[in-house]
Write a structure and sequence with these properties.
Elements lengths: L1 H39 L3 E3 L6 E3 L4 E3 L2 E3 L3 H4 L3
Antiparallel strand pairs: 1-2, 3-4
The protein binds zinc ion.
Length: about 80
C-alpha cells in the first residue's frame, strides 16, 4: 500500500511541476508579445533635415530638431 501512495505522490509532483513550467512559458510569451506591441507603438518622428521617419529612440537631437544621424543627412547641412 505504501508503494501506491508513493507513486501517487510522485505523479502529483510531476503534474505540479508541469503546470508550473507551462505557466512560466505562458507568462514569458505574454511578456514578449507586450514588448513587441510597445515597439509598434513607439512614436515615429520626422528627421528635420532629410525628412525621413524613424523611431524616436534611434533619432538624435540636433540643433535643428530631431535628426536621423545618417551621414547623408549630416552632409545636407
Ligand atoms: Zn535625416
Amino acid at each position: 500500500m505504501a508503494k501506491v501512495i508513493f507513486w501517487l505522490v510522485v505523479f502529483f509532483l510531476v503534474l505540479l511541476a508541469l503546470r508550473l513550467f507551462s505557466a512560466h512559458q505562458a507568462r514569458r510569451r505574454r511578456d514578449e508579445s507586450a514588448e513587441r506591441q510597445r515597439g509598434h507603438t513607439e512614436p515615429m518622428i520626422r528627421c528635420g533635415q532629410c525628412g525621413v521617419y524613424l523611431p524616436k529612440s534611434s533619432a538624435k537631437l540636433t540643433d535643428r530638431g530631431y535628426g536621423c544621424g545618417d551621414e547623408h543627412c549630416a552632409n545636407r547641412r
